[in-house]
Design brief:
The protein is of the alpha+beta class. The protein has helices at residues 7-13, 78-83, and strands at 23-27, 32-35, 37-40, 44-48, 59-63, 67-71. The longest helix is centred in the first third of the chain and has 7 residues, at 7-13.
């Protein structure tokens, strides 16, 4: 798959400005990486951790192909997700 066509790259590229650039990436090798910022690369995503991991690392660079999921820790209105390319509705809270 071409890096420009990777769904994870597209999602991060369309991240809405009103949405904090934080969450948790789940990798295909089972690691859950909380992040407080990110940068896009052609085939790689750079994640910045708020606090270092057990080895002292604050930055993780992961290929888009190794992203298995994304967890968001804050509630957002459906229009935020629509800006990311999602369609449909969510139940009201």
């Amino acid at each position: 798959m071409d890096a420009a066509q990777n769904p994870w790259r597209e999602l991060f590229a369309r991240w809405p400005a009103e949405m904090a650039r934080r969450g948790m990436v789940v990798t295909s090798f089972g690691e859950q990486v909380p992040f407080s910022g990110f940068m896009l690369g052609g085939r790689l995503l750079l994640l910045e951790r708020q606090t270092p991991n057990a080895m002292g690392g604050r930055t993780l660079i992961v290929p888009y192909e190794n992203i298995a999921g994304l967890k968001l820790t804050e509630p957002f209105k459906p229009k935020v997700f629509q800006a990311m390319g999602f369609e449909g509705t969510l139940p009201s809270r």
